Amino acid sequence: MLVVAVMLAAVAALPGCATESNGGFQDGGRGGAMRPLPGPSVYEIITRLELEPEQLPAVRAVLERAEDEREDIQEEMLSHMSDGPDPSMAGLMREKMDDVRTRAEDDLSELLTYEQMAEYREMMDEADRRRDAMRSEMSGRRGGMGGKRGF
Asked: What is each CA distance from 103 to 67, 107, 122, 144, in whole angstroms?
């Protein structure tokens, strides 16, 4: 019981880790804008993986590094879109995001047990399904109102 209390206190003290639900949105990091969550937060991952106290610092470092890299890629993409959407950039940015994810998974596989890694991959698969559903919904909206006028 003491280990659980210490673990929860350590996770709650992590900078940038929300301890409450925020309605599916997170602070936009360095830019400050609100954006839909791309996946589980560092807090959610650490909590669901039930890390041992000795795993926490290294896992946290991997997750935060990956989060920083994703934010850098998003900022790069936004800077290239100042003149409007560039479809060629989307593919490049997706490749960069995939590389970040692959490196994070490789690093985490060295730190996590088999069961924890399976749970991590399940969380990422859940995030992919939510993201795909959002993309599908948004592409339907961009295609018009589907005959509806919205009033």
From this structure: 12, 6, 17, 38
Q: Phi and psi dihedrals of 78, rounded to 5?
A: -65, -40
- Domains of the chain, by residue range, sit at 2-130
Does residue 63 have a pLDDT over 70? Answer: yes
- 11 within 8 A of 57, measured Cβ to Cβ: no
Which range, 36-50, 82-96, 104-118, is most confident? 104-118
Whether 42 contacts 14, CB under 8 Å: yes
- Inter-CA distances, 5 with 2, 71, 100, Å: 5, 32, 32
Q: How many CB atoms lie within 10 A of CB 29?
A: 16
**Plot region of 78 (φ>0 → left; ψ -120 to 50 → alpha; else → beta):** alpha
Residue 96 has pLDDT above 80, yes or no: yes
Instruction: Tell me how many degrees the CA angle 25-27-29 measures, rounded to the nearest 5.
Output: 135
